[in-house]
């Protein structure tokens, strides 16, 4: 399973993408993947600041993860921080605090880690062999190859096509 802290991307000054989750800005690929720096930066963002009790925040983090896994909300390419917060009956600020402080990830990275894991899972399943990489990444909730490819390569060390070919050759 994918380590959710293994995906990183650019965001606005508030730590969130300007629209939806997978922003397609030119600068996005410049800092796509640095799990250690991302986790340290995201946790430091709220250092000395406590929006909610630790036990409550940990429960909110678990609820967010459970919801993403059960309802596969990451498949919605237009998923936003306020949209996920509403489903969890939390304010966007509280959810951002929980994701950054307790998951060590920005909202963008949190959602795209699930998307990336979904694509890798589909690549490993022969029933998806007739689908293009583009079809797989769109199915998982990414908006474009330009957003997906640098994230995928940083995580796997290979392009999506190279990775898929290796998997298929091993079968």
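Q: What amino acid sequence fits the structure above?
A:
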């Amino acid at each position: 399973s994918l380590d959710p802290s293994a995906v990183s991307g650019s965001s606005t000054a508030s730590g969130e993408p300007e629209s939806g989750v997978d922003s397609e800005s030119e600068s996005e690929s410049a800092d796509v993947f640095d799990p250690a720096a991302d986790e340290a930066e995201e946790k430091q963002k709220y250092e000395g600041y406590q929006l909610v009790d630790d036990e409550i925040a940990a429960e909110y983090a678990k609820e967010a993860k459970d919801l993403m896994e059960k309802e596969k909300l990451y498949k919605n390419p237009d998923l936003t921080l306020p949209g996920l917060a509403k489903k969890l009956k939390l304010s966007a600020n509280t959810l951002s605090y929980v994701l950054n402080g307790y998951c060590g990830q920005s909202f963008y990275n949190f959602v795209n880690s699930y998307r990336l894991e979904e694509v890798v899972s589909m690549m490993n399943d022969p029933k998806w062999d007739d689908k293009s990489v583009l079809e797989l990444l769109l199915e998982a909730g990414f908006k474009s190859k330009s957003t997906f490819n640098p994230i995928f390569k940083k995580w796997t060390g290979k392009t999506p096509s190279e990775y898929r070919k290796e998997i298929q050759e091993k079968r």
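Q: And what stands out in the fold?
A: The mean pLDDT is 81.
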